[in-house]
Design goal:
mainly alpha; 3 strands; 21 helices; about 500 residues; 3-stranded mixed β-sheet
Length: about 500
């Protein structure tokens, strides 16, 4: 007869199978599904959501947890798995099946409305569906419970233990430090990005992106890349980690950096221990740590001199009209040029955080009932004028640019910036531990960096919490000064101050 822990593992594996099935349906929804399939797909996902909820909140799981919590023979990893499952179980049992179905159907409807609104460049098509999501997330926060701010209840879903007050403290400090740095850059000689504009054939871009994914270590026998409206990565189960990108034939960087970014996410998922499938020790720690992996590869590798010392000749061969007669130095400066823009995913390393801060501030207002979906477009445009000094020209460039709210992802955005801050701290430590990392990247060899990430981050699953892992690796918890020093040094050199 299987032991209690083996019974627990079997139950968690079944639940992970159901989650994988839902992830497959979501992936297909964003990549392949025809427009008229939205209603039936929403029903299918809602049904699976209800079944998963019913299975997880079953008394059998609760009884297993109760019995295992009294056991003294479990090791630390097993205890960690049970503790995390207990927290998830206690939270899940607060929701009834009707709420789970309602939330799932609202998300499917909102996603379809978001796609239609983007295609028509008309926020009005989406706002009612978004208001339904907002109402549900407010209800969800009340059900979960919170001490200081309703936003805390949603933050905890993506970054366990994180509070609105802590994020505010970090963002206020980063704002105070980035503003004078941006002022210096504005006073410096402007860097031309003309080299990045032109016509870039879709099929050639596609192949180049695949080559870059292979180079950084993405395993195509355990994944694939496709096209979607908003780039994303997803895990359908061990051995099936997928990524998507989007291609703009007039803007090469759109595909390039979204491919590297999502590739970074996928490398993390491909590095998780498959033997721990369905358990905390086989899953990612938090979305900030997940984002640290994508931002590390996108910025510290993908925008580095070392990376392009190796890759620029092949880029010149793929796009001779744009790059053949242009120097590496000019290209390197162009991909690192600092200038405010509309799109978060295409933003430079410094303005990027103002995009995130805008969303963080708006989401707090949403959760406190200070703004409705009807007013979001105007509020969004006002904040872009305030923080980035730009006038939003269209809904697609503004309030419709991100899919997260359509997915019910309120509370997600702060992890993007936190991930960047973790990335700087991790990359600095990686180079300190393995001084040959950058010289190897210069030769197109990313194996040393990937092995370091596998050993120090990926292989642990969720044995440690985010701050705990950071301290274990670097000797201190998250410290944004590492990112700020990196930014001052890098852009001081690029802009000559």
């Amino acid at each position: 007869m299987p032991t209690l822990y083996e019974q627990y593992k079997a139950q968690m594996s079944k639940l992970a199978d159901l989650s994988g099935a839902m992830a497959t349906l979501h992936w297909d929804q964003e990549v392949n599904m025809p427009k008229n399939g939205a209603a039936s797909r929403g029903k299918q996902i809602a049904t699976l959501s209800a079944i998963t909820h019913e299975q997880f909140t079953n008394e059998k799981i609760g009884n297993l947890l109760n019995r295992m919590e009294r056991m003294t023979s479990l090791d630390n990893a097993q205890k960690k798995n049970i503790a995390i499952t207990r927290k998830q179980y206690d939270k899940a049992t607060r929701f009834d099946e009707a709420f789970v179905i309602k939330r799932s159907q609202a998300i499917s409807h909102a996603f379809a409305s978001w796609i239609a609104a983007r295609q028509a460049d008309d926020y009005g098509i989406y706002k009612d569906a978004l208001q339904e999501i907002i109402d549900i997330k407010k209800e969800e926060a009340k059900i979960i419970g919170y001490k200081d701010h309703p936003y805390d209840a949603l933050l905890d879903e993506y970054e366990p233990g994180l509070t609105t007050a802590r994020v505010t403290e970090i963002f206020d400090h980063v704002k105070s430090e980035l503003k004078p740095l941006l002022k210096k850059i504005r006073k410096s000689k402007k860097i031309s990005t003309k080299i990045l504009k032109g016509h870039f054939d879709k099929d050639i871009q596609w192949q180049y992106g695949l080559n870059i994914l292979k180079q950084i270590g993405y395993d195509f026998e355990s994944g694939r890349q496709d096209i979607s409206e908003h780039p994303f990565s997803t895990s359908l189960g061990p051995g099936d980690i997928r990524v998507t990108t989007r291609i703009d034939e007039s803007d090469f960087c759109n595909m390039l950096f979204s491919t590297i970014h999502e590739g970074g996410h996928a490398l993390y998922e491909q590095g998780l221990p498959a033997s721990e499938y369905g358990l905390a020790t086989g899953s990612y720690i938090s979305l900030s740590i997940h984002e640290s992996q994508s931002r590390l590869w996108e910025n510290h590798v993908g925008r580095s001199k070392e990376f392009w010392s190796y890759n620029y000749p092949s880029l010149q061969q793929h796009f001779p009209r744009s790059f053949k007669k242009k120097s590496l130095k000019k290209f390197y400066k162009a991909i690192n040029a600092i200038s405010p823009g509309y799109i978060r995913t295409e933003a430079d390393e410094l303005h990027y955080h103002f995009h995130v801060i805008i969303r963080f501030e708006i989401e707090q207002m949403i959760m406190k009932g200070e703004v409705s979906a009807k007013e979001l477009k105007e509020l969004w445009n006002e904040k872009y004028k305030e923080y980035l000094g730009i006038k939003v020209k269209s809904d697609k460039l503004g309030v419709l640019q991100d899919v997260h709210w359509a997915h019910g992802g309120i509370g997600y955005f702060p992890t993007y910036s936190l991930g960047s801050f973790y990335a700087a701290q991790f990359y600095q430590q990686a180079v300190k531990d393995k001084p040959k990392i950058e010289s190897k990247i210069e030769k197109g060899d990313h194996s040393t960096l990937l092995k370091w990430l596998r050993k120090n981050i990926h292989n642990h699953g969720r044995r440690y919490e985010a701050e705990e892992l950071c301290e274990r690796i670097t000797g201190e918890q998250l410290n944004v000064e590492h990112f700020l020093r990196y930014a001052r040094k890098k852009y001081g050199k690029i802009y000559g101050f």
